[in-house]
Amino acid sequence: MQFRLFESAVYANRRAGLRKNGLTGLIILLGNEESSMNYKDNWYPFRQDSHFLYYFGINTASLVAVIDADTGAEIIFGDELTIEDIVWTGPLPSLVDMAHAVGVSKTRPYNHIETVIRQAMASGRKIHVTPPYRSENKIKLAQWLQVGVDAVDQFVSVPLIKAIISQRAYKENREVAEMDKATIISADMHLAAMRFAKPGMKEYEVMAKVKETAYASNASLSFHPIVTIHGETLHNVYSGHTIKEGQMILCDAGAANDMHYAGDLTCTFPVGKKFTDRQKEMYEIVLHAHQTSVAMLKPGVLFKEVYLNAAQKIVEGMQQLGIMKGNAAEAVAAGAHAMFFQCGLGHMIGLDVHDMEDLGETYVGYTDELKKSTQFGIKSLRLGRALEPGFTLTVEPGIYMIPELMDKWESENKFTEFINYPALQNYRDFSGIRVEEDYLITETGYRLLGKKLPMTVAEVEAVRAESLS
Ligand SMILES: [Mn+2]
How far does the centroid of ligand 1 lie from the alpha carbon of residue 126, in Å? Predict the structure, then answer.
């Protein structure tokens, strides 16, 4: 194989577990196609669908698998390489061999899937699919199901979504071991950035060091990294600024290891050897929010409560600096903390950096009883539900000074009982701070995934002092 697999029984057991969820009919799991960048044969790096990886493991394009929930029959549909393919690819394992390696004994040509689906529909059987997030798969489903592209959604199966989440949310020990590897590489990416950055460099030079560290470890990126002096821009994609003494770099990046498990870490460090006093005050607030939130992690605790703790600690810190006022708990309940903390506190992580987000946040991060809030700030919280052993998630509080948001809320006299707008004006150019780690929920509490990054002010400044001396 040109890719790594778990033992075949792992995949067979997962599929058997999926069938035990009371599903009837056919479960269709689509693999991904090669995806063209600017012309047909110039592809983005191939990324297999995560559910396909979880249940069928095979990391090659143009496959679709069917599980008959009633009989247990499993078929992988795909085409064997022709001699014309092999001229370009070299000899590769046959589909039959790859299927065997994941415990599947039956394969059929790719185009047979259409007949199988149509026959099942004609005899009134249920067809279960997950929400397609790639256009080519949506078009294929429309053709096989004989409906318009917009009508494919009616075949998206909530029972299948819930069944998949009921397995993938609870990481097996072998998965946790892969996540440790991915998170160690991720930590190395951040250490490399912290050791490499020097005043006068461009952001993209630091970004390049982050990427190099991942690729040199036989990993790729679990998402496009953020490496910026404008940490207040939550999804900053521009990296052409010159980094200067007195500024901070926010680096949010993670590796996907060779088994496709993701890490996702964030560090914020000074471009010079030390944080300024003002940066240090604010960093300590974020760190306190982080540490107190991590300490709450254990089975049974709502992650929404952990988020509210982080929000409360940020408000209390802002009150110490004279930027906020009034009752802290009331400020959080009203949503005033979202002036500084506009996003969530964390998310599930696994094969996907936002694990299973294609299935819908309402199913992954919430329950039938616990619905997602629509209030600005907490509405971006992707995970709210009670934690359980085996969950893996990120904790990532931050403070983001967004001048446009300051101006908007001040012009609307919004939350004037909680926010001291004149004091806030001094922080217009402050930028943003975030720290982020990945954790496993255990039977009794939590365990850090991977290895510890320098995170206290003293630890971060020590790395920077060493790097710049
Ligand atoms: Mn994250």
Answer: 36
